[in-house]
Amino acid sequence: MSVELFDHTGDIGVRLTAASREELFGIAALALTDILTAADSVEVRETADLRVSAAGMDLLLLEFLSELLFRFDARGWLTRRADVTIDERGDALSLTAQVHGEPLDPERHGIKVLVKAVTYHGLEVRKGDDSWQATVVFDV
Amino acid sequence: MYKHVPTGVGAHRRDLKLSRPELMRVLAEGAAWAIKEGFGWRGDVDNLEEGGCIRGADPEQVSERALERGAGQLGTLGSGNHFAEIQYVTEIYDERIAEAFGLFVDQITVMIHSGSRGLGHQVCEDHLRVMVQAAARYGIELPDRQLCCAPLSSPEAKRYLAAMSAAANFAFANRQVMAHWVRESFAAALGIPVERTGMSVVYDVCHNIAKFETFTVEGRDRRLCVHRKGATRAYPPGHPATPAPYRETGQPVLIPGDMGRYSYVLAGTQRAYEQTFGSTCHGAGRRLSRAAAKRASRGHALLREMEDRGVVVMAAGMATVAEEMPDAYKDVADVVRVVHEAGLSTRVAQLRPIGVIKG
User: Fold this and answer.
1) Which of A125, B70, B231, B241 is deepest in the core (most CB within 10 A)?
2) Does the structure show a pLDDT above 80 at A8?
3) Tell me, what's the ipTM?
4) Does A120 contact B286 at a Cβ distance shorter than 8 Å?
């Protein structure tokens, strides 16, 4: 399992590697949190459910991260851990997740950068021989 | 100013809460909504691009999620490269135009850089989702899905433009509300009534927008969709869309630099109208990526270094200050010289920062 940030002009890119696609989505959620604030400053105090669907694994990742970003920007929600289940029916993919975290507390959560959006630019999810990899670029 | 204008993530003033019908009015009316609600003076909208309201905005095309993101963000500066800055005029390059703009040497000015906030990002995201599918339907091959699109005459494009215009109106109202709070903060600091601050609006421009404007192409007037991304409008003297006080000089063009050096005010030209669809540059542009700026800032006491330069910086987060440090940007004077010499805008005034608030 690895998370690697890369510079992308005005944006921030992230390359992820994990043993399973569920774990991949989980570390993607954590990577987003860590771009917004120090992920280890976020405690598990509440749990919320979410559900997204898409026509491909890359789009599913985008929908998932966009949902988390929406919950952060509109409601101040920060995710510390995401337990993800992915259901595949033909081309239709649906994801359900339990996200554990807490609402933003400006006293404890210093904001590193405000993410505007999850982009389609260079978006990729692929299955390797014994791992899953993803690339995501965030518009900041 | 830092006390009056909310900066950073999640910050908002308790005395500005929008009901859903009010938010819909903001999206339809733009800056005029703010004036009606007491955030500003009647004449303010006269000096805004499009009068602070883009026609054709349809609030119904703005999603529930965008509305939810926007509801708590009106009258907030945001983060990243957004700022509000107290400056003073250091140099006038064109006396006649500066006089028309109301600018003179040693005058105090305030520049605000902010936009449609989370509401606008959500509108973009919602419509990107539509456009990714639309591009395939219209047989458009994409080198990058982020460049997804649909023909301008398609229902998808029409809906997007109506939503984007509504987001632009939110941005106009957002800046208007903050401009008024800036006036109130000066009035409070000086112990005088707001009306006596003498703080009139010079101009307000969009720099990420597509909208319909009329240009002469091959000898005939055509209504075109002009997309200015990282560019601002620079209409020439005599253009009917230029506010009356600037009819003889061309439209004011605001070009922010970095928070340590200077920003500029320019005026639009006929040449820009003819050659660049009435557009000019918007800002300095980054020299270092955000991460590189952060690395370069390590070991620097940025706030003290800024104070040594005569600039007080107040920010919700130090990470933003590091990313936005002066060295992260190109020297805007070089950029301004190029557009001035190319005749795309006329250099009018240089403004130096003395106080900066950031998210």
Assistant:
1) B70
2) no
3) 0.91
4) no
Beta-carbon contacts of A107 under 8 Å, excluding residues fewer than 6 positions away, are: none
Interface contact A8-B289, CB threshold 8 A:
yes
CA trace torsion A103, A104, A107, A109 (10° rounding): 120
Element (H, E) at B349: strand B345-358
Q: What is the pLDDT confidence band of residue A112, given thresholds at 50, 70 and 90?
A: confident
Q: Which chain B residues are within 8 Å of A5, Cβ to Cβ?
A: 291
Report the pLDDT value the prediction gives residue B294, as an integer from 0 to 100: 86
In 3D, which of A26, A24, A9, A5 has the Cα closest to residue A99? A26
For chains A and B, what is the number of CB pairs under 8 angstroms? 81
Closest Cβ opposite residue B290 in set A120, A122, A140: A140
Nearest CA in chain B to A76: B10
Give one DSSP letter per residue of B173-229, joined into a string.
HHHHHHHHHHHHHHHHHHTS-GGGG------B--SEEEEEEEEEETTEEEEEEEEEE
Supply the range of the domain harboring residue A50.
2-139
Q: Give residue limits of the domains in chain B.
A: 1-78+114-199, 80-113+205-359
* Residue B131 with chain A: CB contacts under 8 Å: none
Q: Average model confidence (pLDDT) for chain A?
A: 94
* Contacting residues of B for A139, CB less than 8 Å apart: 121
A9-46 burial, b at 16+ Cβ within 10 Å, e below that, comes to: eebbbbbbbbeebbbbbbbbbbbbbbbbbebeebeeee
Cβ distance A121 to B289 less than 8 Å, yes or no, reads no
- When the pLDDT of each residue in chain B is averaged and rounded to a whole number, the result is 95
Chain A residues near residue B124 by CB distance under 8 angstroms: 117
What CATH class does B80-113+205-359 carry?
alpha beta
For the cut 80, the answer to whether the pLDDT of residue A9 exceeds it is no
Residue at token pair 């019908």: B21
* CATH code, domain carrying A52: 3.55.10.10
Asked if the C-beta of B146 comes within 8 angstroms of chain A's C-beta atoms, the answer is yes
Output helix, strand, coil percentages for chain A, rounded to the nearest 5: 25, 45, 30
Q: What's the number of domains chain A is made of?
A: 1
